[in-house]
Amino acid sequence: MKSRKGIAPVIIVAFIVAAAIMVAEGVIITNYLVRAENIVRAIREQEIIKGINTMEFSKRGLTQAVLYSFNQASYDISKRGGFFDPSSTTSFNCIPYWKTFSNSNIPNFESELSANMLKIFNGYGTVLDVSVPQYTQIEFDKENNMMKLNANGKLRYEKKDFFIVRDIADFAQLADLKVLKLFEIAKEVANELDSSVSSSSSYPSALDASISVSNNVGQKYYGENIEVVVRPGDNLGSSENNFAMRVLVVIKDNGEKKLVYDFEEKSLAMRNIEFRFYMLLGKEQMNAETNECEGIIY
Amino acid sequence: MKGLLEWAAVGIIFTFTSFVVVIIPFIFTRIHFVETIDVEIKQNNAQLALLALLSSTHEKKQVSQIIVEHIAFGQHANIKEIISTRLEKYTNCYKLTIEDEVLAEKEGCNATKYYAEAKIALPYHPEKKVEILQLTID
User: Fold this and answer.
1) Are A14 and B122 in contact (CB < 8 Å)?
2) In this complex, do A14 and B36 lie within 8 Å of one another by their Cβ atoms?
């Protein structure tokens, strides 16, 4: 009887302690469970932020890639007189003839440039961490020195069964569009050479006329760091009066050099952009000397 | 009196054990979560520092382009200075590497904990289009 009396307070205290523990644990566990939801959400948010950052890195990569694509396409195509594949036209040492007596063969430079720039640029899209759609169109805004690129979809980053980040793929990029001006100057030189050499009565006067064109146009653009070189060749005709000559025209941007891949040297190099083309002019008609040109494969 | 003390001891052990057994897993889970978030946040900070670095310019040229030219030709002798002055705004301990080359590193500290990487576009090359740039911070 005595021992039962002694145990009673212990049992009461034990119940109170057990109840207090349960209440305390209940509060702590509830608190943790509520916080766990926030913590899990915070971890998921960090994953999403990481996805957005990955998208930003890829967009940054694309803006740099577009400049390199533009530089490469400009270098390769202008060096080949505005044709990506000079073997598709009359050419000698991969330099096309823009004019063979009365036959004109002036390329659609912007179209050649944008088509080949797209080939290079779309290659970068395959190696980035986001899914990049195919870019299909480039517009050159010469007044504002801008390029506008349009794609057939959106940029997309996906974490399977969790989230998808999408962003507009179309963008505009500032660029040095001097190469388009070089093409305009090239056309100007071609027109002037055509009229002055064709109206010359003899080979010596045609030589003087071509040098005069070189000097006149060259002086006009000297201040813009653009060099105009006209190299008339030997008389291919049967006499001084019945002459024919092949003229090499080089329009060179002596400003900032561009970092490009040189397919001849098979290495990266800093290069000036320059336009090169031939003209076969004169009185005596003949076939232009041609040879095979190895194509470029991007 | 002796029995009472034994009960009290049992009670204390029971109380302590039941409290600890239930609470400890929660504490460890919480610590794990908090550490995970902390690592994620610091890795995000590393990403932001890398983004800021690549977006910044030096003499009208983007730092990402300067890095690319350095890879291609080793042209920029002061590349360490260009990168360090920018990264020091975001962290006191950093290391920026590309392939096996360390482009810039804080002296007297070896950053190993939190990293971010970015693919930077290289000039056209038939074999290689991008290079992975890795920033590690502590």
Assistant:
1) no
2) no
Q: What is the rounded CA–CA span in Å between residue A254 and residue A264?
A: 21
Give me the residue spans of the domains in chain A.
Answer: 56-282
pLDDT score recorded for residue A31: 80
Query: For chain A, how many residues are written?
Result: 298
Long-range contacts at B99-108 (CB < 8 A, ≥ 24 apart)? B99/B131, B99/B132, B103/B67, B103/B70, B103/B79, B104/B79, B104/B80
User: Coil, helix or strand for B79?
Assistant: helix
Task: Mutation target for B interface from A22, A33, A259: give the one with most B CBs within 10 A.
Answer: A259
CB-based contact (8 Å) between B7 and chain A? yes
**Direct distance between the N- and C-terminal alpha carbons of chain A, in angstroms, rounded to an integer:** 102
- Residue B61 contacts A where some CB pair is shorter than 8 Å: no
Q: Are B37 and A64 within 8 A, CB to CB?
A: no
* The predicted structure's pLDDT at residue A1: 47
Q: Which of A35, A61, A120 sits opposite B119 (nearest CB)?
A: A61
Query: Do residue A270 and residue B68 have CB atoms under 8 angstroms apart?
Result: no
For residue range A85-114, what is the model confidence (pLDDT) as tens digits?
Answer: 888 889 999 999 999 998 999 999 999 999
Set out the domains of chain B in order of their start, with CATH numbers: 2-137 (3.30.450)
Distance separating alpha carbons of residues A236 and A238, to the nearest angstrom: 7
Judge: A21–B11 Cβ closer than 8 Å, yes or no.
no
Query: Which segments within chain B are labelled E, that is strand?
Result: 57-58, 61-62, 94-98, 101-105, 114-121, 130-137
Q: Which of A28, A47, A65 sits opposite B23 (nearest CB)?
A: A28
Tell me the percentage of chain A whose pLDDT exceeds 70: 98
Could you tell me how many CB contacts below 8 A there are between chain A and chain B? 127
CB A92 within 8 Å of CB A288:
yes
Predicted confidence (pLDDT) at residue A5 exceeds the cutoff of 70: no
Q: Are strands A171-174 and A258-262 parallel, antiparallel or unpaired?
A: unpaired
The tens digit of pLDDT for each residue in A169-213 reads 999 999 999 999 999 999 999 999 999 998 899 999 999 999 999
Interface predicted TM-score of the whole assembly (ipTM), two decimals = 0.82
